[in-house]
């Protein structure tokens, strides 16, 4: 089957990474002159008949991944989808098929392939709309076949600066497929921010996670931030990984609990899960695999000044990464910088600082 053989037009499909879904929806609504066909907090789609185009928008930072998420074609029938895959297979183009997958607030059958420049292509049939996103959504962290093919074997650092002055933020990103090593031109305490995109989903990385995280911590300035994005499991995967679609590049899945322990052992603190959904992306044996985003910070030197703090509850006590414990209703002396970190977190409303009274104070109104 070729596209010219179809009775109805085949829709060209392009998926873009956008920083702000509502902003991009407003822009494309003006460009196309029609509202979005579908809009959710984490997804949006435009479907045009003239030209036949399906544009989807994914909430992924283009600065980290680039603007292009993937390309493809929306077919009109199961017969067209099967015929197209058969023709491509006979032409020597391998692909991976998914039947009845729930993805992007829709039920679809599809197959995926990569072009010579590792762009991801999706050929799919829309079978119906859904009210939920679906577990077939593949994390951005594992998209793209061997990034190393494009980047080459070099380990030279690519550091992005957010400004031109001496106070500009210095950032470095590592992606799945690149050698798991720190570039030689990165010096200790030179970075404000490090992003690891699928770094621990590459084959043979299981024993390298903790040593690599220690190297990353060494390159970060005190107070620097690590943003980690990968597929994790709730338990060890004992079966061979053979994930469908673009996730086929995943050959190793760290256990979340072990990954958190590795971050702590590397010296990171204020570790938080910024993305961890109730529904798994994949199930392998008894292991459930989920898209996971973590943020962690390199410790800052403790401030010499102290703050007298009372934790208001509702829990009996809070244990901090610094080895400190806040007991409900009890005054505790904290380093001032640690207290400020707590004040900028979700715990802010649960804490008060006790001020020294310099004169009689009345509590009446």
From TrEMBL:
One of its GO terms (biological process) is response to cadmium ion. It comes from the Bacteria. Residues 8-126 form the VOC domain. InterPro entries: ArsI/CadI-like, Cadmium-induced_rsp, Glyas_Bleomycin-R_OHBP_Dase, Glyas_Fos-R_dOase_dom, SAM-dependent_MTases_sf, VOC_core. This is Cadmium-induced protein CadI. The lineage of its organism: Bacteria, Pseudomonadati, Planctomycetota, Planctomycetia, Planctomycetales. The gene is cadI_3.
């Amino acid at each position: 089957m070729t596209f010219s053989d179809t009775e109805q037009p085949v829709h060209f499909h392009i998926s873009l990474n956008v920083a702000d879904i509502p902003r991009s929806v407003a822009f494309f609504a003006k460009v196309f002159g029609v509202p979005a066909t579908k809009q959710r907090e984490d997804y949006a789609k435009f479907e045009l008949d003239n030209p036949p185009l399906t544009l989807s928008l994914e909430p992924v930072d283009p600065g980290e991944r680039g603007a292009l998420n993937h390309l493809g074609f929306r077919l009109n029938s199961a017969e067209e989808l099967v015929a197209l895959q058969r023709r491509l297979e006979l032409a020597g183009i391998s692909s991976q098929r998914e039947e009845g997958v729930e993805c992007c607030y829709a039920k679809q059958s599809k197959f995926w392939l990569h072009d010579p420049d590792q762009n991801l292509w999706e050929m799919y049939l829309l079978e119906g709309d859904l009210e939920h996103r679906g577990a077939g959504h593949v994390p951005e962290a594992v998209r793209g076949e061997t990034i190393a093919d494009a980047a080459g074997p070099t380990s030279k650092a690519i550091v992005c600066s957010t400004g031109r002055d001496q106070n500009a933020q210095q950032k470095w990103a590592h992606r799945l497929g690149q050698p798991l090593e720190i570039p030689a031109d990165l010096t200790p305490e030179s970075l404000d921010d490090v992003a690891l995109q699928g770094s621990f989903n590459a084959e043979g990385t299981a024993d390298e996670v903790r040593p690599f995280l220690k190297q990353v911590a060494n390159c970060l300035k005190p107070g620097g931030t690590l943003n980690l994005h990968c597929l994790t499991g709730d338990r060890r995967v004992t079966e061979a990984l053979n994930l469908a679609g673009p996730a086929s590049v995943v050959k190793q899945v760290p256990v979340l609990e072990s990954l958190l322990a590795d971050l702590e052992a590397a010296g990171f603190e204020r570790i938080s899960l910024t993305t961890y959904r109730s529904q798994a992306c994949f199930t392998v044996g008894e292991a459930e695999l989920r898209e996971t985003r973590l943020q962690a910070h390199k410790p800052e030197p403790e401030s010499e000044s102290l703050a007298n703090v009372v934790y208001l509850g509702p829990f009996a006590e809070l244990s901090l990464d610094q080895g400190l414990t806040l007991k409900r209703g009890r005054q505790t002396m904290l380093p001032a910088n640690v207290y400020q970190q707590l004040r900028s977190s979700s715990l802010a409303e649960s804490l008060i600082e006790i001020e020294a009274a310099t004169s009689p104070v009345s509590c009446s109104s």
